[in-house]
Amino acid sequence: MSLGRTTDYDMITNHLIITPQWAVIPLEEADRIPHPVVLCTTIHISSDIVQSLFQALLPDEQQRALRFRQTEDRLRFIIGRALLRKLLNSYTHQRLENTPFQHNAYGKPALAPHFNAPQFNLAHAGDYVVIGLDAHPIGIDIEYLNPHFDFNTVLPANFSAEEIRYIQDASSPYCNFYLLWTRKEAFLKHIGYGLAQSPIHVPALQGTHPLLHRFGTNERAKYHYHSHSCYLTNSNHLLSVCLNNSDGHTPAFYEIQLA
User: Fold this and answer.
1) Which of 10, 76, 182, 190 has its CA 20 to 30 A from that of 243?
2) Considering only CA atoms, which of 189, 202, 171, 180 is closest in space to residue 243?
3) What's the pTM value of the predicted model, to 2 decimals?
4) 36 preceded by cis ω (within 30°)?
């Protein structure tokens, strides 16, 4: 693949699907892990732990949690937001109410710059909640691999012709769809746009690609992004994490024990 004048563009490298070794660690020790890191937990935990996590939320977050009608949606929100707050609190050593999230124009949360805390991104789907932490911006996405989802309806607006062929010619097209989709969404969450920006401009096939579409302002520095994707152990969830200005090393993967 010829990249032409690659210095004119940001670049993205989509690595092979990896099979990480998931280490188990208590929540209280998570702030000792070198970055970048992916932290994962399941929503299938005891009601006592859920209640404890609910109490860790701020009042407005508790009210938001209670508005979810579906139990699994409520659990994903409670566990994800409480876990994130507890993790960040271990870095800032502040009370939770003293570490309010700021949000950019597209809704991506962050802590104020004066906090000595890593940058983060949160995602959840199906049975899992995942959080990515790094010293630099990070994006993460996870999807439940639903074989009954009619993804063909969303292909033309979100994927290039080459990506569509990659999906439709596969022995398991829906798996390839979710692989490319999580890579695209992880990148867009990384740069803080989310799906406010069309994923069609984000190349997601394996290899190194120039980002011909300019994201953000023309004045910012050029970046080289790296995305890593993996199946969870039961292979019916797939996650992708996007890093920038890295040397391409794989992030560490940990399962958080909630007790």
Assistant:
1) 76
2) 189
3) 0.91
4) yes
